[in-house]
């Protein structure tokens, strides 16, 4: 029975050969002269014709042995699959089929597998055994109409898996699908592997030297006097080199775990299936936990450090639950999560503006420290996981916005709080700068061509291209284009009100007078709920995304006022959420590969068959790894980014050379692929 689908370039033949004999051997021999993709052989007929005799099984083994070399020859140029015979449901078999028993079928299957595997050991080409059909049949054969043939749903599942086996290695879908071959290591990945290996060896050698040196000089008892001798040398301090190697040693082990989870096909992945309970029940659980860990803040200012860490923490936990539950398919949840992402960017504008405005520190050291802390993990993952920089879209987003904030405030004239206090006109000068920034944002948001031209120039194109263009970067930037500006403007107004002593930030005191505080609190609650009602009534994601940049600030400001106007609320925070807030960036990035896996499209399965236990174990490892990476980043930032300007300049030149080398190796890799 031939099947042709010219539009999909599919040619399929179903050939009926009831026995493994000379006729079948001749057909397989003819296939070795042309291209054939699959061979499927079914064996019930042999058992039925020969009434399940042992002589037929012995002859079957001889015949399989004779065709095995031909199948191996065919496997050199094609994919050859030997499909195991499905079990039968013996109670439903008709009288004419009673000789077909599962015991006989197992004997035939075992003979075929043993002969084909034995033959494949001596050959590079291998005939693949397609055993999943047998496993499916064991679960579904009771639903068979005659006890012999599989139900239609089981046949569909078999066909789907066979298509996955063939198509996924060609199309390489980035989701939780099966059957993708392990990607070959790139040159850059091999160099990274060697670097981490040398770091581990170097650290072990230095540790052993220091330990032996310490043991030789540690205190001992004088046998003659009975007094303890003091050591000539105390335990040596950890050197910069040892700290550096220690950090890279830990990072190398962590990156090995990343690679094994999401590139080595060692662990299974599963798809996400959204239900309301899978999203909302964990949300309620973590909120209850957060309330139980309430403590007093060290200071009671608006958006103090503990409060912003708390804010980042609970938002990050909600976003993680959103990702693992696949809640992006539910539009009201999606719109609220968009506000949480916007709130992160709002804090970026608020925090960096406040620092530059108050400190007036526009030095290179500050810029390098921020850029290193933001980008270190992502750069390492780009190398180890062979992913483009833009793939981890949030880090490029906050990096670019940090540079925009820096450029806005650093260019002439530099206007800071100290200068503005002497002359109020400087406040208008800063407002003029902010208006210019808003104008540029507005222009770029409605000029996609200009935006793409700016970021298509080398070397920016290397950072912001994804799949050969910068559209994804354009979409991400445009989605929250105004919220950083809103954060900067809020910081400016708040600091101005604070300087004029319009607001009261004492412990337990409301932010304004009682009447004003009550009015603002009422307006904030109404605004917060109004936005939630609007977001919940969204019907079209595209239309809601168009409105989101302009209206997301409403719920953000409402939350800030609700959280800070009452003095007793402003004076406490959740240490549970604040702890997660301190590692929120690492949590957001690490989830791509060691929690969700399949580049966020699937869920990592460390323990198959126990979904709840699997989530608990993978989550514990994931959080520990994120915390450790945060510590490593902080340690390396102190070493790699020194305060001395001349030393820092040399380091920057080395980093420029490093990225130039990466670019050259990447170009070489691209050429070899083409």
Automatic annotation (TrEMBL):
It comes from the Eukaryota. The keyword Protein biosynthesis does not apply. GO terms for biological process: carbohydrate metabolic process. InterPro entries: Cas1_AcylTrans_dom (IPR012419). It is a multi-pass membrane protein. Belongs to the PC-esterase family. CASD1 subfamily. This is CASD1 acetyltransferase. It comes from Pitta sordida (Hooded pitta).
């Amino acid at each position: 029975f031939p099947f042709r689908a010219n539009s999909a370039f599919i040619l399929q033949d179903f050939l009926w050969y009831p026995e493994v004999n000379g006729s079948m051997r001749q057909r397989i021999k003819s296939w070795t002269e042309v291209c054939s993709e699959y061979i499927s052989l079914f064996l019930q007929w042999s058992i039925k014709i020969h009434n399940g005799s042992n002589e037929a099984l012995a002859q079957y083994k001889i015949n399989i042995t004779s065709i095995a070399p031909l199948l191996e020859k065919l496997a050199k140029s094609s994919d050859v699959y030997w499909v195991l015979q499905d079990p039968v449901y013996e109670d439903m078999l008709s009288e004419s089929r009673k000789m077909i028993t599962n015991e006989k079928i197992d004997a035939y299957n075992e003979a075929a597998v043993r002969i084909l595997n034995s033959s494949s050991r001596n050959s590079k080409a291998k005939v693949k055994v397609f055993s999943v059909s047998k496993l499916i049949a064991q679960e579904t054969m009771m639903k068979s109409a005659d006890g012999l043939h599989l139900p239609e749903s089981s046949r569909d599942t078999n066909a789907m898996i066979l298509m996955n086996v063939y198509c996924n290695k060609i199309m390489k879908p980035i989701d939780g699908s099966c059957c993708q071959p392990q990607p070959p290591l790139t040159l850059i990945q091999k160099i990274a592997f060697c670097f981490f290996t040398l770091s581990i060896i170097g650290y072990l050698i230095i540790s052993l030297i220091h330990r032996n040196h310490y043991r030789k000089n540690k205190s001992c008892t004088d046998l003659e006097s009975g007094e303890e001798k003091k050591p000539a040398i105390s335990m040596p301090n950890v050197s910069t080199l040892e700290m550096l190697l220690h950090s890279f040693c830990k990072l190398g082990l962590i990156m090995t775990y990343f690679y094994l989870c999401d590139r080595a096909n060692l662990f299974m992945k599963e798809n996400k299936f959204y239900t309301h309970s899978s999203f909302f029940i964990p949300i309620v659980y973590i909120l209850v936990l957060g309330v139980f860990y309430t403590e007093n803040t060290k200071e009671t200012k608006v958006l103090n450090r503990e409060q912003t860490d708390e804010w980042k923490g609970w938002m990050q936990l909600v976003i993680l639950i959103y990702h693992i539950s696949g809640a992006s398919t539910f539009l009201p949840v999606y719109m609220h999560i968009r506000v949480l992402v916007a709130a992160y960017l709002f804090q970026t504008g608020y925090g960096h503006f406040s620092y530059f405005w108050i400190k007036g520190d526009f030095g290179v050291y500050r810029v390098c420290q921020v850029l290193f802390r933001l980008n270190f993990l992502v750069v390492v993952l780009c190398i180890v996981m062979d992913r483009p920089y833009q793939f981890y879209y949030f880090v490029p987003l906050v990096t670019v916005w940090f540079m925009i904030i820096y450029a806005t405030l650093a260019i002439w004239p530099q206007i800071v709080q100290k200068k503005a206090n002497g002359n109020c006109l400087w406040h208008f000068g800063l407002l003029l700068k902010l208006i210019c920034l808003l104008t540029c944002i507005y222009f770029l948001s409605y000029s996609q061509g200009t935006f793409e031209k700016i970021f298509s120039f080398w070397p920016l194109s290397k950072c912001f291209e994804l799949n050969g263009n910068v559209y994804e970067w354009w979409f991400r930037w445009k989605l929250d284009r105004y919220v950083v500006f809103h954060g900067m403007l809020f910081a400016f107004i708040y600091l101005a009100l604070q300087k004029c002593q319009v607001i009261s930030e004492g412990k337990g005191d409301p932010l304004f007078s009682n009447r004003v505080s009550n009015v603002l609190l009422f307006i904030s609650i109404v605004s917060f709920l109004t936005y939630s009602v609007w977001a919940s009534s969204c019907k079209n994601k595209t239309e809601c995304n168009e409105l989101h940049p302009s209206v997301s600030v409403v719920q953000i400001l409402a939350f800030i006022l609700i959280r800070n106007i009452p003095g007793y609320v402003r004076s406490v925070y959740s240490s549970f959420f604040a702890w997660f807030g301190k590692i929120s960036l690492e949590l957001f990035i690490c989830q791509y590969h060691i929690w969700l896996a399949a580049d966020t499209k699937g869920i990592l399965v460390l323990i198959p068959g126990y979904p709840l236990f699997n989530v608990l174990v993978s989550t514990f490892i994931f959080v520990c790894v994120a915390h450790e990476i945060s510590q490593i980043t902080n340690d390396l930032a102190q070493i790699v980014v020194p305060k001395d300007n001349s030393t820092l300049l040399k380091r920057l030149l080395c980093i420029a050379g490093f990225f130039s080398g990466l670019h050259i190796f990447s170009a070489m890799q691209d050429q070899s692929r083409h």
